[in-house]
diguanylate cyclase (Rheinheimera pacifica), 321 residues
Amino acid sequence: MSETSVEVSEIHWLMDMFQTVDVGLVVLNCDYRIQVWNGFMENHSGLTPRQVRDSYLFDLFSEIDEDWLRRKCDPVILLKNRAFTIWEQRPYIFKFRNYRPITGSAEYMYQNCTIFPLSDTRGQVTHLCFIIYDVTDVAVSRIELESMNGRLQQLSKTDYLTQLFNRGHWEESLNQEYKRLQRYPHQSTLLMCDIDHFKRVNDTYGHSAGDLVIQQIADAVRKNLRATDIAGRYGGEEYAILLVETNLEQAAHLAERLRKSVEQLSIKYNSQILKVTLSIGLAEHNKDMVNYRQWLEAADKALYRSKAGGRNRVTCYSPLD
């Protein structure tokens, strides 16, 4: 085989690889007009090399942020260095539909990209070459993993039955607020509440009815919360609410509103209508408390007084009691 034939064969192989390789290859001149467009780009855009030849990139693909891409490419032209983009920074350069069955949930193709300069015989950069990598599988797997980790983290601090914070996370929040109040002159109040005669509900109607009552009251708690309040299920039928930046008088108004809303509930279980009430105890933070547990004990004492005083009432703790 002659040397000319070998060279022709090599060019043929190179062109074949250029068209069939599973990455996008795009060459632009320095005016951002398309000069080269391989098979990958044709397959995903639906545009042939003939259709895009000499077209201004940003007219053809309006989803590309022109200012951003020019800032990315300027150093490539001036310094003759490569540049890279990754999907975590920007999901794609060319918005192509995702076609992979495994990652079918993805709305579009996630892409990484390498941009490097092409120089003439004098060493002047005349063109830019873009290599587009489809990284949808990696991106979707990472996103799903992060989402799952987020859900697991949320589950680890959430009570399954009520969807309020569980005791561990709520108590840690209380401790953090206690430490903040020891440093700064703010006011916050702790509210503890307990379902009255809850054992009677379980004994009469069963634990499924008891669970329904707990959930319904948790909903009532949520409806009466403000954005800054932190509520948790403290025990079986006991709830705790940290009222941030709230003095005792303000907290008493909120507690009374919660008490009335629970008193007015009609909880339907099978053919029965269940009526329940809440006893509530309040304790405002004061500097004499040596730890957050003393704050809890103060609110618990107020709650006990509500129980002892006839239930279905709000009691505020006083250090003189």
